[in-house]
């Protein structure tokens, strides 16, 4: 059973985002970004109480900006999804989760070392240029279940 309900349009959308955000970090990096996308759809807490679909997650606006920079700045995001990334997106949607993004709800690419927290959320690890952060214990149990 899938971690979150999805349509083929969601697979394409997620594949485009994974590529736009992490193509330079290879398959593993794109899978980690996919983890965060699915985790946000599953999480019923913090900044993600009103997002339930992949489309909701991708186009979520916080603080007047899209949550994912690639939506407003990324010409790669607006290219057609490729079969390679579609396969990766399906893996994430169905079951794939792995540390450091296994329970992560946030990631970013800093100009220096990964800080120990990101908006008060603990650092879980780094893969190439991306730092991953999961919610504080007891603040988002749904991300650990879904």
TrEMBL record:
Record keywords: Nuclease included? no
Q: Which residues form the signal peptide?
A: none
Query: What are the protein's UniProt keywords?
Result: Hydrolase
Q: Which GO terms describe its molecular function?
A: hydrolase activity
The record, for InterPro entries, names: Cell_wall_hydrolase_SleB, SleB_dom1
Domain named Cell wall hydrolase SleB: residues:
24-133
The reply on keyword Hydrolase is: yes
Q: Report what the protein is called.
A: Cell wall hydrolase
User: What organism is recorded for this protein?
Assistant: Oceanobacillus chungangensis
The lineage is:
Bacteria, Bacillati, Bacillota, Bacilli, Bacillales
């Amino acid at each position: 059973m899938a971690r979150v309900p999805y349509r083929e349009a969601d697979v394409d959308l997620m594949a485009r985002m994974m590529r736009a955000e992490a193509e330079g970090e290879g398959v593993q990096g794109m899978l980690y970004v996919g983890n965060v996308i699915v985790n946000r759809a599953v999480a019923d807490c913090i900044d993600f109480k009103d997002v339930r679909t992949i489309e909701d997650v991708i186009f979520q606006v916080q603080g007047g900006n899209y949550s994912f920079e690639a939506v407003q700045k990324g010409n790669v995001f607006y290219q057609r999804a490729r079969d390679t990334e579609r396969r990766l997106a399906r893996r994430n949607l169905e079951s794939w989760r792995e540390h450091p993004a296994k329970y992560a709800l946030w990631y970013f690419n800093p100009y220096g070392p990964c800080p120990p927290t990101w908006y008060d959320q603990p650092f879980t690890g780094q893969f190439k240029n991306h730092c991953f952060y999961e919610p504080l214990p007891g603040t988002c149990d749904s991300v650990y279940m879904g």
